[in-house]
Amino acid sequence: MDVYPVFPESLAAIAAGIGKAEEFFEEAKRRGFSPSICSYTRCGLGISWCQKSAFGPIPEPDIFITDVSVCCLHVTWWAYLEDHFQKPTYYMDMPATDDPWDADYIAYYEDQIRGMVKFVEENTSAKFELDRLKQAVHYSDQAGLYWRKILELRKRRPSPVSFRSLAGEILPLVTALGDKDCAEFYQALYEIYRDQARQGSCPAKGGERYRLIWNGIPIWHHLHVITYFEEKGANFVWEPYTALSWGNKTPSGRLDPEEPFRSLALKYTNVLTNMPLEKRFRYFDEAIKEYRVDGLVMFSNRSCRPQSIGQDEVVELVREAHDLPVLIFEGDQADPEGFNMAEAKNRIDGFIEILEARKQ
Amino acid sequence: MVIEEFRHAFERRHDLCISMKREGKGIIGCFYGAVPKEVIHAAGLIPIQLLEDRTERFEEHSGLLPFLCGMSKNVTGQIYLGKYSYLDGIVVGTVCDTNRHVFDIWVYRKVAPFLRLLRTPAKAGKEALEFYAKDLRKLASELGRISGVEANGERLRQSVELFNENRALIEEFQGKRESLGINAQEGIFVVASSLILPVEKHSQLMKALLSEMRPTQPSEEDKPRVYISALNFNMALDLVSLVETYGGKVAGFDLHQSARYASEPIPLDDEDPFLCVAKGYIRRVPIPGVYDFEKRAEALKTEMERTKARGIIFLSQLYCDAYAMEHAILMEKMSRSGIPYLKLEAEDSPGSLEQLNVRVQSFIESLS
């Protein structure tokens, strides 16, 4: 509809990733927003108040649109934005559920998507064209398809893909779906990784000795934690963040441009943290077998309660089924306060020793 | 005296529930005020809210992450230690991510025979109301299988009327509390006990209280009057003590207008009572982010005006992100209106709030 989105949450992650989030956190602190609050929210609000990102000014928005699916704090954050900045706001309503595949639930969300279209038309000069949506869904599907192909390459031994690289390469999948450029980007990226796979290249130094799962959002402010694992011969081969949170999250793994609203509803209602813990474990169970995993790293993220609550129980299930070693990191996704890289390295070293001992 | 019965009921709530179970009554635990207790009542079951308990360090038995709010940890610890073993089930209505997702752990650990997450929309449009009404009908049917009682439309209407009556009695009480000579702490027990007593019993006590008490002579003292916005009952009681220690007076509190208690009456203005309940709850329980912030702020200002409070203290539990967010937003609004405020974050433990005594003292003095 030629309405260009700006994503404060993604800008918050990027700001944290390049070490330029401090001024936004300080602004939130100055305004009385407690550190108990998710760091994406605090940093994203900081970006909104300051009307700039880590790269410079951002344009004043005309409308606000948010989802209600992944966490309650999204709603509160955007309700605040609506109240503070007095802009028309649309909430993509997705009630709490532990059964996201329920037909009524998906139908309700499909209504929300149609409602969003009306909202945009009523609040901007944009006009909806079905053919353009079909085209956007086609390109989104293509992007998701190639993303999935990239993830499939990681089943190879060695996997050619670095989780650290993916953490950045995922950005268009989050912010630019529907564009032809985005689809072409992922096709090109897949071809690069496919060629690297054929050459046997791998980000793990000295060769891939250990294959790991990372659970949780990346630690944006210290992505070199991942690099440190790689320096020790460990390679992350699967993450719920890359495999289950973005792209074509539909039962078929594809989006159907001929049924765009339904496809998008099937995709966006499929939220991992809305599933019962046993169902979440099944994804880990399959991944451990298919990706031939040696160990798990669980990021206990104080900003993301939906992802962190239940992690211990999933670890319990993993240990019962697979007897794999698990390393748990505590910290925050975007706020570096309290994170100590030296301590993290010590813990990683200890974990590597365990992995090595199991290989002997 | 009737007033003492409210505290008594609150403090003996588990014993009372066990007695009711022995009488053959079914009891459903509600995890916060977003759960429509009317539907539970219509199914012939007694809704009681899961409440924080300070008689032991239940948090330590929860197995939950250290950075989660103490209330969820406390409730989970109580469940694991069998304090709620009398429950026939638990229904969760989402107020925050923690209360939503501890549900997943409770399901995994099978902590109750019936566990249900409500699919409460964040919007109140036609589709949302129909969606929610359908979920409530489904809930009623599920509860009916537990109780053997069909929660039909007529029964639901009657339940709504009973709870509306209770709401009106609490509202009347709050309006008259001080003039009846009832202090803030006793007032908190009146509200808190509404969450754990059968509605009929609580309303009966309320009526007895309102008819028994007589207006007292207004006090001449000119103590700085403070309004409290809090969610946790224990902490609210601690704060009342602290305010009074430093020469202030708690003019009012909003526990009855928070996410603990759905205080807005449900209009029975549709032939489908399930739709009435859906309308009565969606965006009408002050859940952070879902309830309009301006409306919430105005309600607090109205209360402050009514109770002649000079300032407001926002009290949230450590790691409670939902209320940390709401309070930051409300403080912004209070600041714009020139209303003095104080924000406190503490744990629910004796002495935790005491460590903030200097701040409370300074605030009280600033209102003098």
N-to-C series of helices and strands of chain A: HHHEEEHEHHHHHEHEHHHEHHEH
Q: Order of strands across the biggest sheet of chain B?
A: 2-1-3-4
CATH topology of the largest domain in chain B: Rossmann fold
General shape of chain B: globular
How would you sum up the major sheet of chain A? 4 strands, parallel
Q: What do the pLDDT scores of chain B average to?
A: 94
The CATH architecture assignment of the largest domain in chain B turns out to be: 3-Layer(aba) Sandwich
Extract low-pLDDT stretches of chain B. none
Brief rundown of the structure:
The complex is a heterodimer of chains A (360) and B (368). With 360 residues, chain A is α/β, with parallel strands linked by helices.
Quick tags:
heterodimer, A: 360 residues, alpha/beta, Rossmann fold, 2 domains, four-stranded parallel β-sheet, 16 helices, 10% strand, B: 368 residues, 14 helices
Overview of the molecule:
The complex is a heterodimer of chains A (360) and B (368). By secondary structure, chain A is an alpha/beta fold. In chain A, helix 1 (8-17) crosses helix 3. Chain A folds into two domains: 8-123, 3-Layer(aba) Sandwich (Rossmann fold), CATH 3.40.50; 130-359, Rossmann fold, CATH 3.40.50.11900. In chain A, the strands form three sheets. In chain A, strands 6-5-7-8 form a four-stranded parallel beta sheet, with helices on both faces. In chain A, strands 1-2 form a two-stranded antiparallel ribbon. A two-stranded parallel ribbon of chain A has the order 3-4. Chain A has helices at residues 8-17, 22-30, 39-50, 72-85, 103-123, 130-153, 163-169, 171-175, 180-199, 224-231, 240-243, 260-269, 277-290, 305-308, 311-322, 341-359, and strands spanning 52-53, 56-57, 64-67, 89-92, 210-215, 234-238, 295-301, 326-331. By secondary structure, chain B is of the alpha/beta class. Chain B contains 14 helices and eight strands. Chain B has helices spanning 2-11, 13-22, 37-42, 70-80, 97-109, 126-147, 153-176, 184-194, 199-212, 233-245, 273-281, 293-307, 321-336, 357-367, and strands at residues 26-31, 45-49, 89-92, 115-117, 225-230, 249-253, 311-317, 341-346. A four-stranded parallel beta sheet of chain B has the order 2-1-3-4. In chain B, helix 8 runs antiparallel to helix 10 (233-245). Chain B is globular and about 60 Å long. Classes of the chains: A alpha/beta (360), B alpha/beta (368). Chains A and B meet through helix 4, helix 5, helix 14 and helix 15 of A and helix 5, helix 6 and helix 13 of B.
